[in-house]
Design a protein that fits this description.
51% of the residues lie in helices and 12% in strands. The chain is built from 10 helices and 5 strands, in the order βαβαβαβαβαααααα.
């Protein structure tokens, strides 16, 4: 059982929020809170020290905010999946966070059980896109022509790559895609890399949004 426990780091400048999150998460059998941080800079340092599986990160914090912390974690190639937990719903906050590498974005009024489910989901490799978050990102792409916005690039995808892309948009991990299509995980990873290259996309989040926008979801 020990190797299945999800190790979580809490990064929020409000102690009462961290305490509330810790109190709830500590009763989950498969989740362990391994540390806390009060701002983005401390969060990055603690993530490097503790190597958690998932980081719960606020966006607005003094000093280094959550978005800058996300960028630093990506630069350091830290493997932790980052789930944004915030009260800010504006597009100008949602979009940069996901572009910076967040694996999901939820609000602080989320049901506790749903939060635990979100942690398990991003840990499993899923991209957690709540409907309003996906809408904000798609809206920005329609207004400003975000990366991979041209539908013409989709014609360069093979039929198998389109199948993989549709499953990415459904929130499937590489392992789940491999099982669904009866492929090896290594082959799926190759398909994902080819998809990102052909569509000029940075990550799975952008790939999922591209698929939603172009009708490849189930």
């Amino acid at each position: 059982m020990a190797d299945k426990v999800i190790r979580v780091l809490l990064v929020d400048d409000h102690q009462v929020v961290r305490r509330g999150l810790r109190t709830f998460l500590e009763v989950q059998e498969d989740i362990e809170v391994v540390g806390e941080a009060a701002d983005g800079a401390e969060g990055v340092a603690r993530a490097e020290e503790l190597r958690p599986d998932v980081v719960l990160m606020d966006v607005k914090m003094p000093g280094t905010d959550g978005i800058e912390a996300l960028r630093k974690l990506r630069e350091l190639a830290n493997p932790a999946r980052v789930l944004i937990v915030t009260s800010f719903t504006e597009q100008r906050t949602v979009v940069p966070a996901l572009r910076a590498g967040a694996s999901g974005y939820v609000y602080k009024d989320i049901d506790p059980d749903a939060l635990a489910g979100a942690i398990r989901s991003v840990h499993a490799g899923h991209v957690l896109l709540q409907p309003e978050v996906a809408e904000a990102l798609l809206s920005q792409e329609e207004q400003g022509g975000g990366p991979g916005g041209g539908s013409g690039r989709g014609s360069t995808l093979t039929e198998r790559e389109r199948e993989v892309l549709g499953l990415i948009a459904d929130g499937r991990s590489n392992r789940e895609i491999a099982r669904a299509l009866v492929l090896s995980e290594k082959t799926v990873k190759t398909h994902v890399s080819n998809i990102l290259m052909k569509l000029d996309l940075a990550d799975r989040t952008q790939a999922a949004l591209w698929a939603v926008r172009h009708g490849l979801t189930s």
